[in-house]
């Protein structure tokens, strides 16, 4: 073996989200989450991400999240498969409506907590560090109905009540926490990102940025609370990231690319530096946005910044100031111009390992805080062949390229705590509601219509990632 670029204590693992793989949507007192009202891929699921009222009107349909891959009843098998790969960490989220069914109860649902007790205890027993996301696109549906989600400042106290229960319950078991998943997604998918219904709103940007402010304050106050409960807690923020390239050397394209990157960095500027960036003043003025702040908000943000910065990376982006440039593709919700130098997946995501290295260097240069790559992966259609074999060399190629680039970023001097590839076990796509768009090392026998045995199978990538972890990133 040659020398690894990865430190000896590097946290290799995988990532999931409660609302996309737990299932058991109405078991043991759980309330409904936002995802639970979104129908399957055949019924314009993407449209319903922007129209909650229409989604709630539907009475007869298939709702993928209701059973998903049923981790709720398969958690022992699944965690043991992850441990077999050698996971050092497992990124999970805790379903808010499983603990507080409507979101604003005073006392938690004990049966919901007992489920996570079992999951976290088994993780620790198997040698996997739990990495817990507090709010991963599952604000309780009750909070959308009652107060339009994070548009209402009362959500801060509801979130802190939820956070306090988790911090106290797991103060001696969980070290790493993320306050919000992909916090910048509130601008792009406001229903999932903030429990927001924007139908009929004259200035949606005002509502989105005011809701974002409430989340930023909630994150800061949760960070403060966490450090008071256990000073050893490590609290991170989480960004949907990916460097934006200018389409040409035209200065207008370069400025456009910088502007696109700032849309995401805006949030991390606040969470990592503790104050609104200077460019936000003009941004808000141009959009007609005026943020209402409590007298203590500025101090709370400044005094309670995060310990590390986590992010998702699937692809880079390409931007142009030329309105005639319209050949676009998808890039983790973000629309982007097609980059002719990159390969494109079935779902329009473009492969760019060097973009991950660039992204890591940019974020670390900007904030000088440890990074954690908590989502990275390739959604693809997998075929089960004779002997229950799944030959997913396309996934291995994508992940290998990205992990190598991550190692190069570390060699560049970037401090990185770990890597949790997305959907380490097949789960429901957040955007499309599909099972066919698979990410995992572990195949789950379930199709887009909910048919299948739910049997788990090891893909070729399972054994490949096992070797990656075993050799600490040397064997790619």
Automatic annotation (TrEMBL):
Coiled-coil parts of chain: none
| Gene Ontology MF term list | beta-glucosidase activity
Q: Where is the active site?
A: 375
Q: Domain of life here?
A: Bacteria
The record's Pfam families line, in alphabetical order, gives: Glyco_hydro_1
Gene Ontology CC annotations of this record: cytosol
Q: Name one GO biological process term.
A: carbohydrate catabolic process
Q: Which key words are in the record?
A: Glycosidase, Hydrolase
Under the heading PANTHER family, the entry gives:
6-PHOSPHO-BETA-GLUCOSIDASE, GLYCOSYL HYDROLASE
What's this protein's family per the entry? Answer: Belongs to the glycosyl hydrolase 1 family.
What's this protein's name? Glycosyl hydrolase 1
Top-level taxonomy = Bacteria, Bacillati, Bacillota, Bacilli, Lactobacillales
């Amino acid at each position: 073996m040659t020398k690894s670029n990865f430190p000896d204590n590097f946290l290799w693992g995988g990532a999931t989200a409660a609302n996309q793989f737990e299932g058991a949507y109405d078991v043991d007192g759980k309330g409904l989450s936002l995802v639970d009202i979104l129908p399957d891929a055949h019924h314009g699921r993407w449209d319903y991400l922007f129209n909650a009222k229409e989604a709630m009107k539907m009475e007869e349909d298939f709702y993928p999240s209701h059973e998903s891959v049923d981790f709720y009843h398969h958690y022992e098998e699944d965690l043991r498969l992850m441990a077999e790969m050698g996971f050092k960490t497992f990124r999970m989220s805790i379903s808010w409506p499983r603990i507080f069914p409507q979101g604003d109860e005073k006392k938690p649902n004990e049966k919901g907590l007992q489920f996570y007790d079992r999951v976290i205890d088994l993780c620790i027993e198997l040698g996997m560090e739990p990495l817990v996301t507090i709010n991963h696109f599952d604000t309780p549906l009750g909070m959308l109905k009652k107060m339009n989600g994070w548009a209402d400042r009362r959500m801060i106290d509801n979130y802190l009540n939820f956070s306090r229960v988790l911090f106290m319950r797991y103060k001696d078991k969980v070290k790493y926490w993320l306050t919000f998943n992909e916090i910048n997604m509130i601008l792009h998918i406001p229903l999932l990102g903030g429990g927001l219904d924007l139908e009929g709103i004259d200035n949606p940007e005002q509502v989105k940025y005011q809701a974002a402010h409430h989340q930023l304050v909630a994150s800061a106050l949760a960070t403060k609370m966490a450090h008071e409960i256990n000073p050893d807690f490590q609290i991170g923020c989480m960004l949907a990231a990916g460097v934006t390239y200018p389409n040409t050397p035209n200065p207008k394209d370069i400025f456009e690319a910088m502007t696109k990157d700032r849309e995401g960095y805006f949030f991390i500027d606040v969470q990592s530096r503790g104050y609104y960036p200077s460019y936000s003043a003009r941004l808000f003025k141009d959009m007609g946005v005026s943020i209402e702040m409590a007298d203590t908000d500025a101090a709370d943000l400044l005094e309670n910044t995060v310990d590390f910065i986590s992010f998702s990376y699937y692809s880079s982006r390409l931007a142009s100031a030329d309105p005639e440039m319209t050949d676009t593709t998808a890039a983790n919700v973000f629309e982007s111009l097609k980059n002719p130098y990159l390969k494109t997946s079935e779902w329009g995501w473009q492969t760019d390992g060097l973009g991950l290295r660039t992204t890591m260097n940019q974020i670390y240069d900007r904030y000088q805080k440890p990074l954690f790559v908590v989502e990275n992966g390739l959604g693809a259609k997998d075929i089960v062949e004779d002997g229950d074999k799944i030959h997913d060399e396309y996934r291995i190629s994508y992940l290998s390229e990205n992990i190598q680039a991550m190692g190069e970023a570390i060699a560049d001097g970037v401090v990185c705590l770990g890597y949790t590839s997305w959907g380490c076990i097949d789960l429901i796509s957040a955007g499309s509601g599909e099972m066919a768009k698979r990410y995992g090392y572990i195949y789950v026998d379930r199709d887009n219509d909910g048919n299948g045995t739910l049997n788990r199978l090891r893909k070729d990538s399972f054994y490949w990632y096992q070797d990656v972890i075993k050799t600490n990133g040397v064997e790619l």
